[in-house]
Amino acid sequence: MRIDEIKVSKAILTTFQKKFLDFLDVDAAIVGGGPAGMVCGYYLAKAGKRVALFERKLSVGGGMWGGGMMFNEIVVQHQAKAVLDEFGIRTELFEENCYTADAVECVSGICFKAVQAGLKVFNLMSVEDVMARNKKIRGLVLNWTAVEMANLHVDPMTMRAKHVVDATGHAAEVVRIVERKSGIRLKTKTGKMMGEGSMCAHEGELATLRNSKEVCDGLSVCGMCANAVFGGPRMGPIFGGMLLSGRKVAQELIKKI
Ligand code: 48H
Is residue 17, in this structure, part of any structural domain at all? Predict the structure, then answer.
């Protein structure tokens, strides 16, 4: 039977429309598909929650593909190896409490299992604002990344979530929007963004986990974003804190939602 080009177009438009409609009102919405966001989405989906993840770029994986300085190997510590084990990702012991893993295997392995667990990933979509009511974050305002990049004057659309997770990495984009536009006081020492500190790998890893939590009603942070918001040093190409922080926020939300 000949392939009908119009049937192909109809198939894509119909299934995508259904997928998007089904995930316009969810338990959790995650912004950013780096390691922290993807791991968070995996555990939430595995627990039966309806979760959508919005990623600005064509591919998920964030800063993980490039390992350290484009050498595509990552490092995790003993505690975080358990998360990679959960995804079936192979690790090699380098020295005590220092495992390496192939960055490409990490990203693809996490992505595959997360999507199969039920996480719905919408790539090429950027979150440009939040929906807030009575000082609570209730959803996200979305636009195509292509619109953002071309600086086109096209209005966005909105989706609703019981809880939002900012996993946008160093930029902490969602929290910055909340701080700038909503008048909500953040649950930080100053009520504002504290900012990321300079490199200290050991403290940075501990801080990432400690800082991964709710930052205001309806909004949690994980990964590098957590240190940008609550104040904590950077840690370089060790990714254990990112994986553990995604898992921690998921575990908190599983109980809450
Ligand atoms: C949609 C968005 C938006 C938006 C951003 O940077 P990431 O990899 O974040 P983490 O926290 O999972 O991992 C951090 C790690 O990669 C890292 O940078 C480390 C360990 N650095 C240490 C150091 O010392 O430098 O991923 C964030 C993702 C990216 O894919 C962005 O494209 C995406 O979020 N994103 N998606 N709407 N507004 N903003």
Answer: no
Is 119 in a helix, a strand, or coil?
coil
Q: Tell me the backbone φ, ψ of residue 208, rounded to 5 degrees.
A: -55, -45
CA 130 to CA 74: how far, in whole Å? 33
Are 224 and 246 contacting, i.e. CB atoms less than 8 angstroms apart? no
pLDDT digits (tens, 9 = 90+) for 185-239: 999 999 999 999 999 999 999 999 999 999 999 999 999 999 999 999 999 999 9
How far apart CA 240 and CA 143 sit, in angstroms, is 31
Kindly state whether residue 15 falls inside one of the protein's structural domains.
no
Is the pTM of the predicted complex or chain greater than 0.90? yes
Secondary structure of residue 45 in the 3-state scheme: helix
User: Nearest residue CA, atom 29 of ligand 1?
Assistant: 62
Domain count, the chain: 1
- Ligand 1 environment, Cβ below 6 A: 31-37, 54-57, 62-64, 126-127, 167-171, 173, 223-225, 234-236, 239, 242
Cα gap 62→124, rounded to integer Å: 13
The encoded tokens of residue 25 equal: 């009102």
